[in-house]
Specification:
Layout lengths: L4 E7 L3 H15 L3 E3 L8 E6 L6 H11 L1 H6 L4 E5 H7 L2 H5 L5 E3 L7 H8 L4 E3 L4 H7 L10 E5 L1 E2 L10 H4 L4 E2 L2 H13 L4 E5 L7 E3 L5 E3 H8 L7 E5 L8 H9 L6 E3 L7 H6 L6 H14 L4 E8 L6 H14 L3 E6 L16 H24 L5 E9 L5 E6 L4 E5 L8 E9 L3 E6 L2
Parallel strand pairs: 1-2, 1-3, 3-4, 4-5, 5-6, 7-10, 10-13, 14-15, 15-16, 19-21
Antiparallel strand pairs: 8-9, 11-12, 17-18, 17-20, 18-19, 20-21
The structure holds 5'-deoxyadenosine and iron/sulfur cluster (SF4).
The site of 5'-deoxyadenosine has 12 residues, from β15.
Length: about 450
């Protein structure tokens, strides 16, 4: 179809939102839309929102406000709010910002074209939670051109950590079928991808339909995907410590395409706080999971998520978080101040002051940053395999990732994009490695 309309998607939040935005673009292409990089010449603007932390809702209202001149100039402009803020706020968005035409949650975007058409008559709000319908209706063909592509295999969460909105905005745990994921991975590879990153809020709890009515684990799925020729690398995020299995550890050891990188949030090192968070594991149980996976794959890179200043957290609790960090040696980490999420149990607990949160976050981040730098500088003089993804900032430079998911820059010809090359590391900055090709 010849494109006649332009769509601008602004993405907020996690990798799953990025995946959703890509799939929206692919399905809109079938209705004659082409992507544009600015709202200024767009016929359709989609804000794909995230609700996980901070003043997400207010941020979105000011984003919408910024589109006022665009709407004034082009009254036919359709403004849509998608994602988790849309799911949480619903009709309230249109009540507060009547220039919004369309509000839809993460499980409804496969009906986008119909919703756009209907919004020409009256504003539309679609917050349906039918998770299995979305994936069977979306176009099977992927036209993603990324060397490293996201692939959602599991959505939603039944864990109900007391700080987290995901179980409310993304719904209950749902796993896609093995066949559907396999076909999508093959499609991505045909379009040029060489790595897939399997996505799920609780990805290692994956239990999708395999052969007949059997339920397959994430490890089984990974082994199956590793059959696909030209699919060189497989990764998965985000895992929960209680769902790490022996089978996955074995896959880390024995499946050459499964990369040695595990993102395993702990959130806090204090058992008292972990209990209040409803994490259902202790700090030592987390450490045992790490010890176990390292016994199968000694070089595995571990990354984590942390929340500081969770309600009632005291200095001793915080010190226990620092102790865990010292014990694990994280390669990369994501750390946040606790943020009250409306409707979650922790929002009603005794809050910690912003000043204390900020002090603790600075302390934790400085330690995590040291560990990240150490992991990078440790590689200098060593050699490993890099999958080049795209051109770098400087002429003649490419950017890619090594097995441990570290960013690598090297001077290399463009033809090497999509190839795996051996690189010797010569220098490390705070976030990435510099290296030269070994020929
Ligand atoms: N406040 C701060 N951080 C949060 N996260 C999730 N909910 C909150 C919250 N209310 C963090 C957790 C999670 C990551 C995706 O976001 O660390 O693992
Ligand atoms: Fe949220 Fe993860 Fe806890 Fe699920 S396991 S409730 S997604 S933090």
């Amino acid at each position: 179809m010849v494109p006649t309309q332009k769509v601008f998607i602004k993405n907020f939040g996690c990798q799953m939102n990025e995946y959703d935005s890509e799939r929206m673009l692919e399905s809109l292409a079938l209705s004659g839309y082409i992507e544009t990089s600015t709202a200024d010449n767009a016929d359709l603007v989609i804000l794909n929102t995230c609700h996980i932390r901070e003043r997400a809702t207010e941020k979105i209202y000011s984003e919408i406000g910024r589109l006022k001149p665009n709407k004034a100039e082009n009254p036919n402009l359709t403004i849509a709010v998608a994602g988790c803020v849309a799911q949480a706020e619903g009709e309230e968005i249109i009540r507060r910002q009547p220039m919004v035409d369309l509000v839809f949650g993460p499980q409804a975007y496969h009906r986008l074209s119909d919703m756009i058409a209907a919004s020409r008559q009256s504003p539309q709000v679609e917050l349906d939670f039918n998770q299995d319908e979305k994936f069977s209706v979306l176009p099977a063909q992927r036209n993603n051109k990324r060397v490293s592509a996201y692939l959602t295999v599991q959505e939603g969460c039944d864990k109900f950590c007391t700080f987290c909105v995901v179980p409310y905005t993304r719904g209950k745990e749902f796993s896609r079928s093995v066949q559907e994921i396999y076909d999508e991975a093959k499609n991505l590879v045909q379009a040029g991808s060489r790595e897939v990153i399997l996505l799920g809020q609780n990805v290692n709890a994956y239990h999708g339909q395999g052969n007949g009515n059997s339920s397959w684990s994430l490890a089984n799925l990974i082994w199956k995907l590793s059959d696909i020729p030209q699919l060189e690398r497989i990764r998965f995020v985000t895992s929960h410590p209680n769902d790490m299995s022996e089978e996955l550890n074995v896959a880390f050891r024995d499946c050459p395409k499964l990369m040695p990188y595990l993102h395993l949030p702990i959130q806090s090192g204090s058992d008292r706080i972990l209990k209040l968070m409803n994490r259902k594991h202790t700090a030592n149980e987390y450490l045992d999971v790490i010890k176990n996976v390292r016994s199968y794959r000694p070089d595995i890179a571990i990354s984590g998520d942390f929340i500081v200043g969770f309600p009632s957290e005291n200095e001793e609790d915080f010190q226990q978080t620092m102790d865990v960090v010292h014990k694990v040696q994280f390669v990369k980490s994501f750390s946040f101040k606790y943020s009250q999420r409306p409707g979650t149990p922790a929002a009603n607990m005794k809050q910690v002051s912003k000043e204390i949160q900020e002090k603790r976050l600075a302390k934790l981040q400085s330690l995590l940053f040291e560990q990240q730098k150490l992991a990078l500088s440790d590689s200098i003089g060593k050699v490993s395999k890099v999958l080049f993804e795209k051109k770098g900032r400087y002429p003649g430079q490419l950017v890619g990732k090594n097995e441990h998911f570290q960013v690598v820059h090297a001077m290399a010809k463009d033809e090497l994009i999509g190839d795996i090359s051996t690189v010797c590391y010569t220098a490390a900055s705070s976030n990435s490695l510099e290296g030269s090709l070994v020929v």
